[in-house]
Amino acid sequence: MSDIVEKTLTALPGLFLQHQAAGGSGVPRVSVSSRLGSLIRSITALTSKHEEEKLIQQELASLKATVAAPNTTLRLMKECMVRLIYCEMLGYESSFGYIHAIKLAQQGNLLEKRVGYLAVSLFLHENHELLLLLVNTVVKDLQSTNLVEVCMALTIVSQIFPREMIPAVLPLIEDKLQHSKEIIRRKAVQALYKFHLIAPNQVQHIHVKFRKALCDRDVGVMAASLHIYLRMIKENPSAYKDLTGSFVTILKQVVGGKLPVDFNYHSVPAPWLQIQLLRILGLLGKDDPRTSELTYDVLDESLRRAELSHNITYAILFECVHTIYTIYPKPELLEKAARCIGKFVLSPKINLKYLGLKALTYVIQQDPNLALQHQMTIIECLDHPDPIIKRETLELLYRITNAQNVSVIVQKMLEYLQQSKEEYIIISLVGKIAELAEKYAPGNEWFIQTMNAVFSVGGDVMHPDIPNNFLRLLAEGFDDENEDKQLRLYAVQSYLSLLEIENALYPQRFLQVMSWVLGEYSYLLDKGTPEIIITKLYRLLINKSTTSETKAWIMAAVTKLTSQTHSSKTVEKLIQEFSVSLDTCMRQHAFELKHLQENVELMKSLLPVDKSCEDLVVDASLSFLDGFVAEGLDQGAAPYKPHHQRQEEKLSQGKVLNFEPYGLSFSSTMSSSGCTGRQSPAGISLSSDVSGNSAETGQKETNSLKLEGVKKLWGKEGYLPKKENKAGSSPELQPIAQDSTLVENVDQMIMKKDQSQALHHSEEEAEKQRLASTLFVGLGSESAVSLLGKTDTVSHKFRRKSKINDTKNREVTSTHNINCSSFSPLSNAPYEDNDHLNSFQDKEDIGLKKCSLGSEFLESGLKSESLTELHLVENFSACSLSPPSLFEDNSMEIFHPPHPTLSSFANEISLTSSLLEELNEHVHSDLVELCNNEMLKVSSCKIWKDDCLLLVWLIVNKSSLELKNMNLEITSTENFKILEHPGFCFPVIEAESTKSIQHHVQMEKLFTEEDLSGCVKYKVEEDPYIQLEFSITLSLLDFIRPMKICTEDFGKLWLSFANDVKQNIKISDSQANLPFALKTLQQKLRLHIVDIIGNEGILACHLLPSVPCLLHLRAHEGMAALWFRSSCSTLPDYLLYQCQKVMEES
Amino acid sequence: MQFMLLFSRQGKLRLQKWYVPLSDKEKKKITRELVQTVLARKPKMCSFLEWRDLKIVYKRYASLYFCCAIEDQDNELITLEIIHRYVELLDKYFGSVCELDIIFNFEKAYFILDEFLLGGEVQETSKKNVLKAIEQADLLQEVSKHTETPRSVLEEIGLT
Predict the structure, then answer these.
(1) Which residues of B touch A273 (CB under 8 A)?
(2) What Cα–Cα distance (Å) separates residue B39 from each residue in A215, A1101, A1130?
(3) Is B158 an 8 Å CB contact of chain A?
(4) Where is this region: Disordered (chain A) (predicted)?
(5) How much of chain A, in percent, has pLDDT values that exceed 70?
(6) Where in the sequence is the domain holding B78, given as residue range(s)?
């Protein structure tokens, strides 16, 4: 059939020409009388939306019947599809037709197939399941001898194709790259581009062919390949530097008009191609003087050739300017580019003006003078009637804000904010205002007022960091104590006056900020007694529009204030009212307040004035509760059981009858009160530890029989009495849950925070200020130029005492968020919110947060003096079972206090020896040389720390020259996770010296062996970067650690794991000796031998960070039966493989 | 390019092409919002819009609005020219195109678009080449019409 069609096709051009000559206007306006036509006409005739809906529903119903009817011809089907597309476009769902669209593409003749493919591309998206049914059709059409069919198949592939089916068509498409027709080659390249977008790994191997496409004799094919290159270069510019020359040559040819005239657009040669090339060159030349050098000429020529005649030349100019400012700067070109920007900015055409502003925004940091030149235009644009222009101007101003112009700029931004309703704009603008206000506020009053505006407008859509940062800034204060007080006082006063206004509605976030500030700082007011403020807060509290989250904040504030008064009627009333509230949280807060109020001394010590910034140490082990727990247990209460234990029991109960009498009914209430006690202000789920303790203690008492009922394989260890003693010896505590929470607070040690860290200014900011001081000061009141030299000293008044750089900041604030959300409706202790903040902030001071947190826990553990090694081990086993929590990570650290970093070693030899010294507790590999050249050597060593795999890289400068800008970068892969930033930079490495870097590596995806690769880049004097690549092989075993548990815990864990793998393997005679075989496993795989009983052995290990795996080995007549169990489904398989390997080797 | 929409001054959608996978609900929402925003703009205003995190480039030809969504770092002006080139192609194909051509022959408008833009990127910038590809496929249409005429007539009779 298709053969016939093709023959006819070849005969046709002549026929067509005749037809065209006769037809005159080319394509006749056909098929108006079709069914689609009548449908469209009847729709346009309708007057109401309702009628339209009725008509379309009718139409759809009849279409549904038609497409489903068995005798519908494909021709009719094609017609139906067109109508369906139309209905879909009008917004009516017609999914019943999707499958028929696929069928049409599959079965129809060319013309029907074309409509079928079109319908598929319009109806489905690339993740649609029906798309799989199209794959066969595509494969068939790709193999067709008919060009048009191949074209259609390639077109659909480039639009939507299921990612997982790429292998099915990839070879066919690769073949098409050699096709004789350029249209096929072009479409094939485009299809590969699509594949590269959705599954880059699958087309990695054909990168060579992309190069061929780039050199294709047809311009269209070459242009299509640029899409792929642009994408790839964006991802990894360094890999394609060698192509710079080719791109430059191509661009030169294009600019020089060497392409066929067909590609001209309004007599400009191939503008799309030019722009694509300019972008690529920009990416390649960025921060790379040598590559940039190659491009200067052609950029200059592009600028010159682009005569301003048409929009399209502006488009090219814009891209040119962008590229010139992106690559390594060349003054001469910059000057020309600047002139070009001027043309944009001064153009009367609004589109060009917009782009001019956009370009200015982009270059303003490099070229402040430019903004100065266009001062007046910028000011005009600020009041432009088109909001888009206005917004772009604000964006520009935002970048040149400094201490002197901040109030004007923020004022303008606020004005704009008040007019805009779109959420997206509000969020971004509010964020910018808050940032500027924090950085450059000229005074307390202004700052608070601006932030008030931000909170009122930004309300509940703004980023939660904004209120968090604001509160933190208030709390941490600045260097001047007096100044701090003033600011806080002003904030309090301003909020009081805001609350004075009747019927004013504020966003919830604003109310939260207000209540925190009032609770914390209203003591600064001379005259205002707490009573007045409490009354105001009370009014907010009973307001219906206040959410329960906000109520918790307000309640916390009231509680703080109550500690400063003697007695308050409002508080009494409040307690009374909320003690019967239906909201459990509020009721609890009310009760807490009531109890606190009864003990004024306690309350004062609990809620000290102005101590929000001080740290507290949390007794994570909750050891002070031991007495309480012991007392409960003495009275016959059931111990708390962690989740896994309860499940395990359920399992065992399923199998065996329980002959034990049921426990006292009292037990359940006791354990539940234990629970409330544990939800301490520490908030975070630190509980698993303690729950583990008490549970296991008790379990042995009451449930031992049950455990024996289950086929009891393992012996028992008698550490139970020891533990009970411990619990008994703890200080006595009142057995009331709420009180115990309070006692814990008292128990918390308060430490002064280290505030000595230096201020951190990023270079960028310094730059910003320098620029800004040259511009717009007072907006024209003074001559701006005269201010050029002025440095601005007042700024940064409101800069928070940044102890950390911005990225960390963000990290921390995000923890704040978690903290706040967990605090509000759920937490039991609202008055501790500030302390939460601080305990989290504290983390940022610690370099390796987790490690030191761990040691803190250790400290607190020691304080309670009741934890022995054994105890800890047991905790650990309990923890490793619980779902991931903060504590879980840390629990591992408990046995192994962190080691100091290794960065200060002078040379390799001493370094290795000190490595040994420092880490003699840790097993480590030998130092392996990874790569080497005449200047430099990189070697590495694996340190198998108990909690992680530490990779230490040693970089030795062998030469007598300084190496500069030394960068070490690890390529990120899906298999590994590097806990630190994967890159590292040494500004300078002196001659003949050694530097070391270390990375903590974690496994993300299970594997047997994988390479971790990376590269070092450095500079010698002013020469370009030299790059050395290296890779190191990591194996699964690098991430396996022994799990030291006792037999009994092994038994419990064994039952709780669902994934198991069994395998019999042959063992040699030497291994018939079981202990010997086990020793092998212990040494080679780092398994911990838990116990040996007869001819059975049990071993345990865990995969970092904490995926346990257990092994049961039974030796029997030259065979070893291995039985793995783990909480992870794939780990047993991998370990089995390793075991087999090891056993075979030995 | 993320998507392209064609709609009339009355806000009726005439053509839609999505280059990013989105749910139908989202598509409808985006279309509704954009049509509203664009129609509300005054004629002298800038052809570019910041919308969510995207840049919208639109241009009005007679009663039809052509509207493209691009990413922030893309070149707005060249997008404007993409629209213009598409209109030129339509114009050449239909012979001084008007809205009715696109309404009644929207599938043809789609075919042209697919030859010009593929997967959100410009595929072929030469006007001649695009039209050649379209004509080639159209010729088949003529052929198949020709060969199938007898059958289709019978069909029509059988059906009506």
Answers:
(1) 125
(2) 45, 66, 56
(3) no
(4) 670-702
(5) 71
(6) 3-157
